[in-house]
Structures
1.
Amino acid sequence: MTVRTPPLAPLTRPARLRPGARVAVVAPSGPVPADRLEAGLDLLRAWGLEPLVGRHVLDVHPRLSHLAGTDENRARDLQEAWCDPSVDAVLCARGGYGAHRTVDLLDWSAIRAAGPKVFVGYSDITVLHEALALRAGFSTLHGPMVATEVFLKDTATQDALRATLFAPESVRTLGLDGAAALVPGRARGLTYGGCAGLLAADAGTPGARASAHGGLLMVEDVTEEPYRLDGILTRLLRTGALDGVAGIACGSWEGCGPYPAVRAVLADRLGQLGVPVVEELGFGHGPTALTIPFGVPAVLDAPADGGRCTLTTEVPALT
């Protein structure tokens, strides 16, 4: 007998930011270059925000140099920022690797009690987007991180995040001009997703998403060869993590090999689901990283006639 899971339900959205808002910067994953961090903080200050840097943001693990300090300290910075009532947002400094190691160290009861806050990140931060959705019920933002090159150098990326933070009703329709229909159609659902490799790594772990029933999957990755992407997507299919998905929007596949080869994998693995699929919507590790709200109802349009492909949220990302 097939057990049908209920469709995903909209998550609790945090409040928009206003000038003077205090934003905590944390490093749940890899080591953070100090010069890039300072440049990112200057940009936040220019927006009228007051950044607060976590105590361990510039740490490097004493034995594992791919981690920004110990698991306990990275988790503690995130926990303290979230539970500080004076903090309005928690922004990640960078991705890399390591967020998976912190998820079970966080006090999710305390995080739920503190309520929703603006949370921004992508790449390795995918696991925290999923945890905040599934364990706390909070909407989050898949967007650029403070100490990353795309945030520091790309104006379109900066403008998209700034508009989302301060005037979210102005950026409800998303998608770069190059977005195209891999599988035409129109779908409505609840946005979720992130880095394909992290979603696959999360699948089957305690508290992970059991299915995608009623969801609009936003998915991208970086430096994965086409055969590796095949394996990642196949794992998501075999675990049932994509069961019931309403539609899929693909972001960037930077460094994942010749795009025709990547596209062939996407068409083969995702095309079999019988749902609309958009390619190159404009989020993730590419030269421009649009900010995508997770946990909100949206409509994905992939016109068969070659018209503009878009993701339109039915509510602003923030209240």
Note: The chain has a mean pLDDT of 96.
2.
Amino acid sequence: MNISILVFGSEKFVAKLPDQILDTTAFTLEVIADFHQAISQLENEPPDVIFIQASLDKSIELCSWLKNQNQLSWLYCILFEDRSYQLAAKNEQDLCWEWEMTATALRQGADAYIWQLTDEIIGKNPASITTHHQVILAQVGVGLRKAQKYRELMRTNDLLSAIALADSLTEISNRRAMEWDLPRQVKKARTQSNPLSLIILDIDYFKKVNDTYGHLVGDRLLQLLASRLRHNLRSKDTPFRYGGEEFVIVLTNTTGEEAVIVAERLNRIVAEQPFAISKELTIPITISLGVASLQADDDDKGYSLLHRADQCLLNAKALGRNRVVSWEYADFSNLKVMSS
């Protein structure tokens, strides 16, 4: 696996890194000396580990900025102390001073603080280079483990989110997913000045299916209906199981007239072909559908849009079911709430 390292430092600094890190077959190094460019790179393509050269302008500021970013605080930041006045002081002072400097670096946002070797130390003990490089590689290993754990956690969270937003019976998105997605679609439609429409539908007399054949057959019918809906929509249109036998379909970049055409086609597709529950049992059903389109005075969450479509659905039931009613053409004067 190729490990990515962002180096906020100079080419001269990079030249002093261990040969193993300079091996392009194992590591990918991105060397940046500009503060704003480094931030842009971190935001757009986070590496596994970041090296920061302490003598570079705004190095400590970059450490602090990094730890204040919720989406990047997991990134392992190694600060390399190469400032000559600090290195000289380190040789003259006792161990407590070194600990104090390390504590300061960690408080400023670094995850590790490594002192660069001076020529004097290397001259006295050439073997110190090997030990020093081993420390650097060990710290990279710590950072890599942290990055792997974070990414595994993100994958797990993505999986759990997908499970939480999917209806376990029909395997399409559930009501929670719709309540999360609809405001986003409303905002997108308004930002791009595109139309947005919504269909709400349910199965006519679904209670009779459950009462006659049992709930397992009713569940299978819901699964087959969800599959039929999904396969007769555009990829950018999203069906949701709203609850019970009710479904909502969000139609992006779709006018009210176009949404009515879609709804009438779905109504026809469901009514014309009975649903094969098993080899022995086929059930014909019909659906009622309400259609509404986004208006300028609708709220940002889509509640009013959904409410209008629901009123149209109720109207379709009041008019005899097995039909489409659009908000633009609906007559609500005789609206009555019908039983399923």
Note: Residues 128-164 form the longest helix (37 residues).
